Amino acid sequence: MRSEDIKPELPEQEPIIENKELSIWEALFPVIILVGLLAYNIFIFGDSALGGSNQFILLIGAAVAAVVGFRNKVTYKQMMEEVGHNVKSTSGAILILLMVGALAGTWMISGIIPSMIYYGLQILSPTIFLAASLVICSIISLATGSSWSTSATVGIALIGIGNSMGINPGMTAGAVISGAYFGDKISPLSDTTNLASAMAGAGLFDHIKYMLITTVPSMTIALIAFLIMGFSITSSGSPDISDKLAAIDGAFNISPWLFLVPAAVIFLIIKKTEPLVALLAGALLGGVAAIIAQPDILVKIAGGTTLDFNTAYKGVLQALTTKTSVETAIPELNDLFAAKGMEGMLGTIWLIICAMVFGGVMDAIGALARISQALLQLFHTTFGLFASTVLSCLAINVTASDQYLALVIPGKMYAKAFRDKGLHPVNLSRTLEDSGTVTSVLVPWNTCGAYNAGVLGVPTLDYFMYAIFNWVSPFVTLTVAALGIKIKQLREK
User: Fold this and answer.
1) pTM, rounded to two decimals
2) Which of 4, 53, 178, 258 has the most CB atoms lying inside 10 A of its own CB?
């Protein structure tokens, strides 16, 4: 079968809402207010801004957008319908977040994550740790097609290993995210890979092949950067880790057999099992593993004296839903072995819902379409068309707070412009991925940024500069376009 004949089966997309009465400055006004308030809010609250104040700022931004909408004959009902649609579209992501929290809880008390840290400390040295994390996450994400699942499984363990070595969590998170999005971006199993090719009208495997032109250089830059960082932080990792290993081994029953649980989850995802189902299975299997491998820990968490059905039930349910922790002989390690369960994901869910309210109102008043149209009109050259697409994707990621909209809206708006320039659809599909898919995780209130910050326990602004692959990709795609490298033309029949 030819690659041009392979088209992804995707649900029908909602039409782009346009409002011809809306000026570009009216469309940008809510964005300017939002960015200004968020910047001031972060200045005042710092990392704790995600505790609730940023969420309220997003609602203020939505209110400002609503006022602009009222001035341009958009009704309250229209706005609420779009908000409802946006919030509904995140229901899957919200459930996945809850399952990730549950999985992290049972994988902690069962000894799965402690075992990963225990063996990881012996295998990975601080010098190669960041580069190795990048490669490991790239392979897992390429095989599963999911950056989110990669962060929720291997990513959590790598954060723990990095913390044990004294490595900046932002660096580790940056390596994890860079690798996760590299694999997600070029995997044929990835939903964004399929969506970008569908929006541009390109064949799936033509799209993947063409993406390698910019993805390989971006990945090479990231790998070199992490190798350089690794050599610079060698001294921060203690060469003698025997005390740490002894403390972990004394607190948990460490065994390589525990890795059967994460292996089962990865297998399910590779077999195209829905991520929600795979993560639920992983959380429950983690609970079973806790009963078998860590009965003493389970009894202590449940507040009992012996392991019976009641204490096992109570201990596993607490790990799934609320905060749990295991103390070791070294107090400095105790933070590594604390999990928050589903409860720990509620702040991230709150942020996503508020971001969807802002994005829904912006879409309802026609601001998203107006911003993309204005950017399209700014440029008339071939390079300008590429630059306009990149800026549109970035703008939608910031304003709509959703990765998929950053692919769908510019994809629909620019498809005809690329054809009119005689450019093959793979040019558009590649640019959508290079600027829409990978940069979503760099926006704190975007669903991807909020998710990864919540799962990895590292604020978006802390890992931003270290997510090298993600922010380098747009620059690489613009460089390739400016130099005219591999700009595929449409062939007339």
Assistant:
1) 0.75
2) 178
